[in-house]
Design brief:
Layout: H1 2-15, H2 19-23, H3 28-43, H4 45-49, E1 56-62, E2 65-72, H5 75-80, E3 92-102, E4 105-106, E5 115-120, E6 126-132, E7 140-141, E8 146-153, H6 156-159
Parallel strand pairs: 2-3
Antiparallel strand pairs: 1-2, 3-8, 4-7, 5-6, 5-8
Length: 174
């Protein structure tokens, strides 16, 4: 019911004051496009919340395993991370390069995928690995000061026998 009312409300907004003053000079095609755009946003609320972000992809290596990781290097990219994603390839992940060596924490707000996160030292040594449930605000933190974090599908590290003390190669220097 609510979704049916929103497009009508959005289109009536175009006809409301002060937009009414522009109505006579706004072509019908423009009004239709505006109503259509508002309709799409109401039908897909996730699309309204996210802006298209293209992360740089880097190649990482964990033992014999190759990883294609998107990388977040600034605060907005790190905050966005894998939010709103509905799938992740078997050897795809998200690496986070932090500005400072510190105890960093991750959460899963607006993240639809269950993930495992490895916190890494400056040389790529795995400090600890945490499993994270989707759509939660629980904190998952590095046990020691970390420079990087690497998120992969839930269980990715365990299935490959990758544990604390292992190394991830190919991380960019900050």
């Amino acid at each position: 019911m609510f979704l049916r009312q929103l497009p009508q409300a959005a289109c009536s907004l175009v006809k409301s004051f002060p937009a009414r003053a522009l109505l006579h000079i706004m072509p019908a095609a423009v009004r239709a496009l505006l109503c259509g755009a508002l309709l799409l946003l109401t039908l897909n609320p996730a699309a309204a919340q996210q802006s298209p972000t293209e992360f740089r992809v880097i190649a990482l290596q964990a033992g014999i395993h190759l990883i294609q990781a998107e990388i977040g290097t600034n605060p907005s990219e790190r905050e966005r991370g894998l939010m709103f994603r509905e799938k992740l390839g078997p050897n795809q992940g998200m690496a986070f390069l932090f500005d400072q060596l510190a105890i960093h924490c991750m959460w899963m707000k607006n993240t639809y995928l269950p993930l495992s996160v490895a916190f890494l030292s400056e040389d790529g040594t795995i400090l600890n690995i945490e499993d994270m449930k989707p759509r939660t605000e629980d904190s998952h933190c590095a046990e020691k000061p970390a420079r990087y974090a690497l998120e992969m599908n839930l269980g990715w590290f365990a299935k490959r026998g990758i544990k604390a003390g292992g190394r991830i190669l190919g991380l960019p220097k900050g």
